[in-house]
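[#protein-structures] MJ: dropping Multiple sugar transport system substrate-binding protein here for a structure pass
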Amino acid sequence: MGQRRVVSTVTVMIIMIVLILSACSNAKTNNTNNEPGQQNTKSEDNKAAEGNKATNEGPKDSGKPTTIRFTTWYGAGDIEIWKEVIKRFEADNPLIKVQFEPLDFAAYWQKIPTQLAGNASPDVIGMHVGIVYSYVQKNQLEPLDAYLSSSEHQADELPDALVAEGQWPKDNPQQFALPWHFTGGTLYINKTAFEEAGVPYPENGWTIEEFVAAAKKLTTDKRFGFQVPGFTMNAGLLAAFGGVPTTEDRLHSNYNSPEMLAYKTWLHDLIYKEKVSPNPKDLDASVDPFVAGKVAMTVGGAWNFPVYRKIKDFDWDVAPMPTKDGVSKTYAGPDLLSIPKDSKNKEAAWKFMQFAIFDPKSQELLRQTGLPMLKKDLEDESVVNEIASQKPEHFKVFLDGAINNGTGYAFTPKFFETAGFESDADVKILQKENVDIQKVLDELHDKVNKELEKK
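AK: finished. structure tokens for Multiple sugar transport system substrate-binding protein:
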């Protein structure tokens, strides 16, 4: 799902600059789709969708040797996993060779907008939730509906919520991306610290108040009880307060809501009133404080599994997200694949996408840094138990939360810009004891709305 750690302000700013430049480049070649300052209305999105439908004829099999280019960003262990997926695909499809072009997250989102704007992108590209919609609006992605209609695999083999994240516009959806990876954020706990502090393993339904009480017991002279989360990792806890960052149509901000104010005030209190969380500015950005034993609880992505499995100094696990008024949510969402509109090898690209997404030989590898994604795997206890045997022990707790109570976070066409704005606001809210939180949220609300109004 995106980013394999919280997006830093510097990274976000770099990406924003590149997106602006690529938008300018796109405006020169397709002025009707990218007018500077033009608002993104539903009628415009539907008009773009109708244009896309007219060009979507589905794949045509050439039967000739083909080389396709594939690019995506990567996290811990991803490159070797993708290389093995490609090896297995090429064994099943000897006429197709895959040229793999992985990039780290920041470099990827600097390069791919420019490639798409210049009609020079690879044939299959990794796509981020939210961001995919901005490329649909620029008419840069191939619609996949006709491909699916003639495919041996159908979208109903995947969870509906994940498939929906690749559809735009929301009131007249077409499929422009499909999920290859199901991931999310969970509450990681230091089991050794829990045992030493006499704190039992949290049960489903434990409350925010019980969570704070546990954090107090876990806090020592050398360790804090909890690390306050950043951006998308706020999803589950914010939902416990009844809040969401944006409206259901993904076109407006909710950052000035009473629920957001209550949540951000609670985070601030964890640092300055309860004293169970460190000031974010005091943490070394190059070191994971959970791995270093500096915090006993943290909210992090499933992509941390391979790294955390190497921890030797303490035992760890995942636990249910705390609740407020009976509401419990888990951050969940997909990483996606798309075919650019300008690809010259769409038939071969579609074959590779199908293999990566639907073939068990691929998914048994790709789920190693996330959650099982195929419905048949989600229903297979042996698959779930195999992952749990490698850690985390309570993997099913995470899985059930993501499937049954999963929630996204600011999955809008302006995802990166929103990330930067909220990160800046969090600096003001969390790094100072005396702050007008409502004023900061009002400013954040206005910034996000102005950005969402831009085409």
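MJ: nice. Residues 2-43 have pLDDT under 50 and may be disordered.
AK: one more thing. The chain is about 45% helix and 10% strand.
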